[in-house]
TrEMBL record:
<dbReference type="InterPro" id="IPR001094">
    <property type="entry name" value="Flavdoxin-like"/>
</dbReference>
<dbReference type="GO" id="GO:0009235">
    <property type="term" value="P:cobalamin metabolic process"/>
</dbReference>
<feature type="domain" description="FAD-binding FR-type">
    <location>
        <begin position="272"/>
        <end position="534"/>
    </location>
</feature>
<keyword id="KW-0597">Phosphoprotein</keyword>
<dbReference type="InterPro" id="IPR017927">
    <property type="entry name" value="FAD-bd_FR_type"/>
</dbReference>
<keyword id="KW-0288">FMN</keyword>
<keyword id="KW-0486">Methionine biosynthesis</keyword>
<dbReference type="GO" id="GO:0009086">
    <property type="term" value="P:methionine biosynthetic process"/>
</dbReference>
<dbReference type="Pfam" id="PF00175">
    <property type="entry name" value="NAD_binding_1"/>
</dbReference>
<keyword id="KW-0285">Flavoprotein</keyword>
<keyword id="KW-0560">Oxidoreductase</keyword>
<dbReference type="InterPro" id="IPR029039">
    <property type="entry name" value="Flavoprotein-like_sf"/>
</dbReference>
<dbReference type="Pfam" id="PF00258">
    <property type="entry name" value="Flavodoxin_1"/>
</dbReference>
<keyword id="KW-0028">Amino-acid biosynthesis</keyword>
<dbReference type="Pfam" id="PF00667">
    <property type="entry name" value="FAD_binding_1"/>
</dbReference>
<dbReference type="GO" id="GO:0050667">
    <property type="term" value="P:homocysteine metabolic process"/>
</dbReference>
<keyword id="KW-0274">FAD</keyword>
Length: 698
């Protein structure tokens, strides 16, 4: 620990779902043990810091959302630094290090961080530490942990250079070095531990814990050779553990009476205006024996000012499953408190830097409302949450296993048994029954319940006052780490909500008695700035949308049909649609509608494939859209290159969109007679020109 005054650096985070904030708080926690003081702020709190006059090093942790956008909390900051009137030396005094978070499943990986990094460089700022880009697809910790480890020596060097610039003598510099902590120094506690109680404050604050296991519950039997969520094997079970520092508690919960009303759902949303609209139609698009169940819902927006274009997305506010909320209350021993209003305050004297009332929790609401509408109880617990749960666990074996799962040594177990298995808090509480967390701990660590985004599957021009969307009911089957099967939070809720609208033996039903008797949902707009039809209707375009990926293209085609009817004198470019599904007779979505579009000329070319249907043909037909696209290489190349057309992809990223991109690269390479590297550069140029557009999910 540094003997003198701790050296300050500014720590900014920009988060969408809480990941960047949690990592920034981990940096803040570790800073003190390395002789630094982190001045931590959300990047949106621009009244609390000033980069124009900042003299100390700056560390930025920033995530990416949507199709490569900075998180909502960074929008004002990004807009400010993108001011074109700023001179190229505007931030020439600034030294910074940036950690970007993203998911390589998406095209614009870590683009939020890259955007800020690039702009700061353009304005003269200098790196004191190399930029890190962490990938949630393989596990953020693979980059985050070593990046944080390397941050401390980089800060040391930055402060030394700063002192040299200030004219310090070499003796003073040496003195500064001698009092700084040795990077990589580990506190080794090698005593044998039987019950693993972390009551000593020195151990509690350390991030190193060495334990020799003698507890009988942790000795692996000859049969227990495979690790699981609750069981570890060597080397993890016998390792000294590097565990995260324990985050200080900062929330205080007080129960009040049962009188009053919960806030309106609109108060939970800061992104824009919300609209409560009725569901006026529900259609099951797939047959009962289809592997996935796809539903189409129609919303009545006639009495609202909600507006959209084909290709836009919108968000649905959804609650957690009522039975899961009930189960959680029961495990917490709070079943009798569900209808009680709670008052949440910041704990007096908390050691948490900049502790504030969580913005997603109302000032006054019932406990059941908070667990139902405010907290993402299905969220995969972060390691900091697991670390906090250790302190609430009484059984020694369970405590050790939770420590392993949040440690560096247990990183692969965390990925396998928690992250990849989509384990949530309820699963953990069942697996570790001696873990009894407090309500304030849950509010501190469970992130905000996010609204779910869906692509619009209609045209306001074609169906005025209506908005349609399509989704598969997401299914999570039971597995060793999750003893019960579950449906998706939003898709499961929507399916249950509209079940009465689906008559037996009939897939559609107009609600009787008008929209007044219909179920209502709360939505808000999430416009897509690029995934739209070409402004010039004469430009041709290609659409690739297997499965529910066809959703936005139904809106495209409805819009195009209406334009053709209203403007018979206009010139319209040709339209291609590549669609695929498993079985032609089970999950061929919008089959009749597509045939109509084809017959009336709105759709010029329809190419379909069915991956699970058997064929008696001598040459088996292609199974996937990327294979069909290759059969039309010359036509695709002509549309993209000669006619400067557009190419749209919607659907699964990993198993489809990447394959389509590979097919397009091969087509460009063959038709232009260039190597693959050159073809990839051409595709990148098409992306940059917003003529190769994706709306994909993982």
């Amino acid at each position: 620990m540094c003997c003198g005054v701790k050296r300050r650096f500014l720590l900014l985070y920009a988060t969408q779902k809480g990941q960047a904030k949690a990592i920034a708080e981990e940096i803040w926690q570790q800073a003190g043990t390395h002789g630094f003081e982190a001045d931590i702020h959300c990047i949106s709190e621009m009244d609390k810091y000033n980069l124009e006059t900042e003299k100390d090093p700056v560390v930025i942790v920033i995530s990416t959302t949507g199709t490569g956008d900075p998180p909502d909390t960074a929008r004002k900051f990004v807009k400010k630094i993108q001011d074109t009137t700023l001179p190229p030396d505007h931030f020439s005094h600034l030294q910074y290090g940036l950690l970007g978070l993203g998911d390589s499943e998406y095209t614009f990986f870590c683009n939020g961080g890259k955007t800020v990094d690039r702009r700061l460089q353009e304005l003269g700022a200098q790196h004191f530490y190399d930029t890190g880009l962490a990938d949630d697809c393989v596990g953020l910790e693979l980059v985050v942990d070593p990046w944080i480890d390397g941050l401390w020596p980089a800060l040391e060097k930055a402060f030394l250079l700063q002192k040299e610039k200030e004219g310090m003598s070499s003796d003073a510099v040496s003195s500064s070095l001698s009092t700084a902590p040795h990077v990589g120094h580990e506190l080794n506690l090698s005593s044998e531990v039987q019950n693993l109680k972390l009551e000593d404050e020195r151990v509690r604050s350390s991030d190193i814990l060495t334990q020799k296991l003698v507890d009988i519950h942790l000795v692996a039997s000859t049969r227990d050779t495979e690790p699981s969520l609750v069981h570890s094997v060597p080397p993890v079970s016998q390792s000294a553990l590097n565990i995260p520092a324990l985050s200080p508690e900062y929330i205080e919960v007080q129960f009040q009476d049962t009188h009053g009303e919960n806030p309106h759902l609109s108060s939970l949303i800061s992104e824009g205006t919300t609209f409560e609209v009725p569901v006026t139609k529900a259609v099951q698009l797939t047959r009962e024996d289809a592997i996935k169940t796809a539903l189409l819902l129609e919303l009545d927006i006639a009495d609202t000012v909600f507006d959209y274009q084909p290709g836009d997305a919108f968000c649905v506010l959804c609650p957690n499953n009522v039975n899961e909320v009930k189960e959680l209350l029961q495990i917490l021993g709070l079943s009798d408190k569900g209808e009680h209003f709670v008052c949440i305050k910041v704990k007096q004297g908390t050691k948490k830097k900049g502790a504030t009332h969580p913005q997603h929790i109302p000032e006054r609401s019932t406990l059941k409302f908070i667990l139902t509408w405010c907290l993402e109880i299905r969220a995969v617990p972060k390691k900091a949450f697991l670390r906090a749960l250790v302190e609430c666990t009484s059984d020694a074996g369970e405590k050790r296993r939770l420590q392993e799962l949040c440690s560096r040594q247990g990183a692969s177990d965390y990925t396998r048994f928690i992250r990849d298995s989509n384990v949530c808090l309820l699963d953990l509480l069942h697996a570790f029954p001696s873990c009894k967390p407090s309500l304030n701990l849950l509010i501190e660590h469970i992130p905000k319940l996010q609204a779910r985004s869906y692509s619009v599957s209609s045209s306001n021009l074609y169906q005025p006052g209506k908005l349609c969307f399509v989704f598969n009911i997401v299914e999570f089957p039971a597995c060793p780490t999750r003893p019960v099967s579950r449906k998706g939070v939003c898709t499961g809720w929507l399916a249950e909500l509209v079940a009465p609208l689906l008559l037996p033996n009939k897939n559609t039903l107009e609600t009787k008695g008008g929209s007044s008797s219909a179920e209502k949902i709360v939505i808000f707009a999430r416009p897509n700035n690029t995934f739209h039809l070409p402004a010039d209707p004469s430009i041709p375009f290609v659409m690739v949308g297997p499965g529910t990926g066809i959703s936005p293209f139904i809106g495209f085609l409805q819009h195009r049909q209406k334009l053709r009817e209203e403007h018979p004198d206009w010139e319209f470019g040709e339209t291609w649609l590549f669609f695929g599904c498993r079985h032609q007779d089970r999950d061929y979505l919008f089959k009749d509608e597509l045939r109509c579009f084809l017959e009336n000329g709105t759709l010029t070319h329809l190419k379909v494939c069915f991956s699970r249907d058997s064929s008696t043909a001598e040459v088996a037909p292609p199974k996937y859209v990327q294979d069909v696209i290759r059969l039309y290489a010359k036509e695709v190349a002509r549309v993209l290159l000669k006619e400067r057309g557009y190419f749209y992809i919607c659907g699964d990223k990993k198993h489809m969109a990447d394959g389509v991109s590979d097919a397009v690269v091969d087509i460009l390479s063959t038709e232009m007679e260039v190597d693959k590297l050159k073809a990839m550069k051409i595709l990148a140029m098409l992306r940059e020109a917003k003529r190769y557009l994706q709306d994909v999910w993982s």
